[in-house]
Amino acid sequence: MTTSSLNLSGRVAVVTGASRGIGYFLARELAAAGAHVVAVARTVGGLEELDDEIKAEKAISGKGEATLVPLDLTDGKAVDRLGGAIHERWGKLDIMVANAGVLGVIAPLGHVEAKVFDKVMAINVTATWRLIRSLDPLLRLSDAGRALIMSSGAAHSARAYWGPYAASKAAVEAMARSWADESKNLPLRVNCVNPGATRTAMRAQAMPGEDPSTLPHPSEIAKTIARLASPEVTETGQIFDVPSNRFVRYRMPE
Ligand code: NDP
């Protein structure tokens, strides 16, 4: 399926980390396919820019809308309120993309400051769990709930100095598999995504010596990821690897 044939009309999608990078372009793709995107991040300027783009696209195609939610995902009570607000307005949620994340620091484990380690875990792991806790009841009410959780190749590679980030991504993958198994008898499908190296601020922080023009632009990556939000996707508990354009399969319990 191409993104142009992706039809998400009438679907409500939460995208975290929508103020820049992969989340920004993913929110645009989902809106272009007709979804109402609830765009979450802290930077109001980035969210407003997204809203302008979605409005401009809608003026041409008639499709897509955004609701902006400036929010720090480490504020657990605010994440809880998000679920309540979505329930009040739409009574369900169709798509959740837990994309927001931080790298922390690239350093030997013994040199990582405790507050940096805690921040990586708070945003990448605890906030993702809190989002699941808040939105799972709403996704269960959708006829084709789709949850995508952004992981990384770092979850599987044994790469020196990436310890906190790698551990956080391995943790969300484990959480996603549990959630997928909990919901396997529902229309809800839960998958992780490895976007691969992408031209964003996070990648530049991780690899300052790299020429960004050698990397895929997040708008390209977003087209592939958006397809995973389609009601047609049947896989659950898997990781979609964008660079190889395929699911890497885990054995789910019988
Ligand atoms: P960016 O740094 O470009 O964007 C990160 C997003 O997360 C921003 O929108 C930021 O918004 C949001 N965010 C961070 N902290 C918080 C917070 N406390 N509350 C709310 N929002 C927050 O990252 P990428 O686009 O590169 O990465 C997106 C995802 O893809 C991440 O999970 C990353 O780990 C993963 N990934 C990226 C790769 C790459 O090469 N780029 C490779 C593999 C995985 P704001 O600051 O406005 O709050």
From TrEMBL:
Superkingdom classification of source: Bacteria
GO molecular function: oxidoreductase activity
Organism: Aquamicrobium aerolatum DSM 21857
PROSITE patterns per the UniProt record, alphabetical: ADH_SHORT (PS00061)
Keywords from the named record: Oxidoreductase
PANTHER family: DEHYDROGENASE/REDUCTASE SDR FAMILY MEMBER 7B, SHORT CHAIN DEHYDROGENASE
Keyword Oxidoreductase among UniProt keywords: yes
A Pfam family matched in the record: adh_short
InterPro entries referenced in this protein's UniProt entry, alphabetically: NAD(P)-bd_dom_sf, Sc_DH/Rdtase_CS, SDR_fam
Family as reported in the entry's similarity comment: Belongs to the short-chain dehydrogenases/reductases (SDR) family.
Record's GO cellular component terms: membrane
Protein name: NAD(P)-dependent dehydrogenase, short-chain alcohol dehydrogenase family
